[in-house]
Amino acid sequence: QKEVEQNSGPLSVPEGAIASLNCTYSDRVSQSFFWYRQYSGKSPELIMSIYSNGDKEDGRFTAQLNKASQYVSLLIRDSQPSDSATYLCAVNEEGFQKLVFGTGTRLLVSP
Amino acid sequence: DVKVTQSSRYLVKRTGEKVFLECVQDMDHENMFWYRQDPGLGLRLIYFSYDVKMKEKGDIPEGYSVSREKKERFSLILESASTNQTSMYLCASSYLVSNNEQFFGPGTRLTVL
After folding, report:
1. Smallest CA–CA distance from B41 into chain A, residue
2. CB within 8 A of B76, min separation 6: which ones?
3. What is the pLDDT of residues B50-107, one digit of tens each?
């Protein structure tokens, strides 16, 4: 059973700080990795995707992938109260069109 | 922008009723998915489809069926709704030949009484 693990949180950070969200996965052949943001009562919104080892930056967001350690993370710089949401990590199942989702980390950014 | 729409945001049904949830996407995506999301259990895949009239079971297909008669439309059917099917239902779509970036609709919150 392929698994994606996330700390449920909440992760509390002050406004302006860096929030670091982490995700580990069990399947060594996973190839594609995604971060979704989900506000309470809303549907998940894709914010980052990463496919190769290293860092990928998009505005205040940086995704980091280390396939050897089976670890993917999301850094949010200059965190804002509007970043308060649940962040879902998802991993592509090799050879299939399915994603395996973690249960999410709740982030709280206090003013 | 990718747009995925779902027929209802909120739905209340009675036990034993037949329930139809519809999803439409406007980006010519081959893949479409139905998930349910429950507190503490995360997103669980019910069914998916990679082509018209094709369907594949996900992780929790029991009590559900699907229909895909047109590429842009994917329906989820609860043949006889039960209270344990009260949940948030989410539809998503993606291109077949891609890294499987999935885009979600707004969700339908179904309550079965």
Report:
1. A103
2. B20, B21, B22, B23, B34, B46, B47, B64, B65, B66, B89, B91
3. 999 999 999 999 999 999 999 999 999 999 999 999 999 999 999 876 667 899 999 9
Q: Does A99 touch chain B (CB under 8 A)?
A: yes
CB A9 within 8 A of CB A89: no
Place of tokens 């019910």: B46
Residue B56, phi then psi, degrees to nearest 5: -135, 140
Residue numbers of B between 6 and 65 with CB closer than 8 Å to A = 31, 33, 40-43, 45, 48, 50, 58
Residues of A in contact with B90 (CB under 8 A): 43-44
Cβ-contact B82, B25 below 8 angstroms? no
